[in-house]
């Protein structure tokens, strides 16, 4: 923490000196001020304390277009330090702003910091986990902050609508459906259920909201759609890119077909739930991550020894004794890599990689072996930044390591990542021309971090 403190005056001065350079870029800048406070919310009809952004729950929507620069000044009026990370946005050459423990110091109570984000709440839960308990099963599911039938989406018949669906919960995977629709709105005008329910949990939670066709006077009717879990694997494989309608995202080197590139190596990541020193921990390849006092990104930049060393996490499954480690995996810029997530546990795993999108090429049950590659989808998988891995199953991805930096790889189950199911992937090049943004181009301000971190 001392580094965070010592750097604060130095970095702030550098930052101001470079402010004008930043503002000269051609791409549009959009400025936001977010004030985070506590407030009463009633999402399930019962009063509870929530975290509000500008007095609202859920918080405001930012709808940026490619190349927009989002400048978000976040004021922390909470009683605990705050870090905000934003899933799903690739921060090109810039892991400095990732808002995760290994790259940023948290914003202390009463302070503000300016950056970019996506919403996740972690809230008085650290203590439960530190004491070695599981997080309680949620009381309910919310759609846009409202419980059963709480939200209605009104649409016009014949038009096409895009729904942004984001599970901002901490631990539970969900299934999203619209009654009678295949996500193509071509049905007669009446009202339909939108049904969100948990998956692979002992207890199934469901919530609904209403899809309302404009001018329709028919009330919602019929049973809530039912489903069987077995269809999930099938469903995962059917999510395909329509190559006739559009090609994968453009990139500066031109469009490439991921299936034609031979991965340079295979990394196998297996999750486990070991007890270490008498406490419940979660691990990847037998290593459970512990956060250092100094963000890894800063230790790397300032060559501070003793904080981490690259290679402390195996790149293949490891049946040895599980241990605690500040785990950083090394990789070279421009490598094209196959990653296999193997899940022998009886729970639905969800893996997220910051800074990248990747192609989910295979999902299946049991043990992954090299012969599993025969069933890969090498043609029309969609680019994504999170992948599910079904219980006692595996998932394989192809990823082009085209973004230099120190990037977090984690379980999206928040209890698991907090208790060690994460590591950092240091994607490195010595070449300055492809290199990452300089620390001095960042309007950075480091703070002294407290013992607890709230992540929004
Ligand atoms: C904090 O907020 C003030 C006023 O809104 C702003 O001028 C300042 O740049 C912010 N500081 C940081 C570190 O973001
Ligand atoms: C939601 O609306 C449906 C249809 O009006 C009703 O049958 C159901 O009881 C409602 N659920 C709740 C929890 O209000
Ligand atoms: C519903 O229809 C009315 C009148 O045709 C129109 O003014 C309104 O914008 C429509 N609402 C939505 C959500 O499409
Ligand atoms: C809704 O009803 C109004 C009034 O009857 C009509 O003018 C309008 O075209 C209708 N809108 C749709 C989307 O059907
Ligand atoms: C793919 O896109 C084309 C062009 O928009 C469309 O005609 C076709 O129906 C789409 N295919 C599927 C499976 O949705
Ligand atoms: C860290 O070490 C590298 C390689 O020795 C060097 O190029 C770089 O300038 C050092 N960085 C700082 C901030 O001292």
Automatic annotation (TrEMBL):
InterPro entries given for it? Cu-oxidase-like_N (IPR011707), Cu-oxidase_2nd (IPR001117), Cu-oxidase_C (IPR011706), Cu-oxidase_fam (IPR045087), Cupredoxin (IPR008972)
Domain Plastocyanin-like per the UniProt entry, residue ranges: 36-121, 135-186, 294-431
List the signal peptide residues.
1-25
What the entry lists under SUPFAM superfamilies is as follows: Cupredoxins (SSF49503)
- Assigned keywords, A-Z: Glycoprotein, Signal
Q: GO: which molecular function terms?
A: copper ion binding; oxidoreductase activity
Give the family per the record: Belongs to the multicopper oxidase family.
State the name under which the record lists this protein. Answer: Plastocyanin-like domain-containing protein
Q: Read off the lineage from the record.
A: Eukaryota, Viridiplantae, Streptophyta, Embryophyta, Tracheophyta
């Amino acid at each position: 923490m001392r580094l965070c403190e010592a750097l604060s005056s130095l970095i702030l001065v550098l930052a101001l000196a470079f402010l004008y350079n930043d503002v000269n870029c051609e791409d549009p800048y959009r400025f936001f001020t977010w004030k985070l406070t506590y407030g009463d919310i009633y999402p399930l009809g019962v009063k509870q304390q929530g975290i509000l952004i500008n007095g609202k729950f859920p918080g405001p929507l930012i709808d940026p277009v490619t190349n927009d620069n989002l400048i978000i000044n976040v004021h922390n009026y909470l009683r605990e330090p705050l870090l905000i990370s934003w899933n799903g946005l690739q921060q090109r050459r810039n892991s400095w702003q990732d808002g995760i423990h290994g790259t940023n110091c948290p914003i202390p109570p009463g302070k503000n910091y300016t950056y970019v984000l996506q919403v996740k709440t972690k809230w008085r839960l650290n203590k439960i986990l530190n004491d070695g308990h599981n997080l309680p099963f949620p009381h309910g599911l919310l759609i846009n902050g409202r419980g059963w039938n709480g939200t209605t989406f009104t649409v016009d018949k014949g038009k096409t609508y895009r729904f942004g669906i984001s599970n901002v919960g901490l631990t539970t995977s969900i299934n999203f459906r619209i009654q009678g629709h295949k996500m193509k709105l071509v049905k007669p005008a009446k009202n339909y259920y939108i049904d969100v329910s948990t998956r692979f949990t002992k207890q199934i939670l469901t919530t609904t909201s209403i899809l309302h066709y404009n001018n329709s006077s028919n009330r919602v009717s019929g049973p809530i759609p039912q489903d069987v879990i077995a269809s999930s694997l099938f469903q995962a494989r059917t999510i395909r890119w329509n190559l006739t309608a559009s090609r994968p995202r453009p990139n500066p080197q031109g469009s490439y077909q991921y299936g034609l590139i031979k991965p340079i190596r295979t990394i196998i990541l297996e999750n486990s739930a070991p007890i270490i020193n008498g406490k419940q921990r979660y691990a990847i390849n037998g290593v459970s991550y512990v956060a250092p006092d100094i963000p890894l990104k800063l230790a790397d930049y300032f060559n501070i020894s003793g904080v981490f060393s690259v290679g402390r996490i195996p790149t293949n499954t490891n049946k040895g004794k599980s241990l605690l480690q500040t785990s950083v995996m090394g990789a070279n810029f421009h490598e094209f890599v196959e990653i296999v997530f193997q899940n022998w546990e009886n729970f639905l795993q969800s893996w997220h990689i910051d800074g990248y999108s990747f192609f989910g090429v295979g999902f299946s049950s049991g043990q992954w072996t090299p012969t599993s590659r025969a069933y890969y989808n090498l043609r029309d998988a969609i680019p994504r930044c999170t992948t599910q891995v079904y219980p006692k199953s595996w998932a394989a991805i192809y990823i082009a390591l085209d973004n230099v930096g120190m990037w977090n790889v984690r379980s999206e189950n928040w209890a698991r990542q907090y208790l060690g199911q994460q590591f950092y992937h240091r994607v490195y090049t010595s070449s300055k021309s492809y290199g990452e943004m300089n620390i001095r181009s960042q309007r950075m301000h480091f703070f002294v971090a407290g013992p607890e971190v709230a992540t929004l």
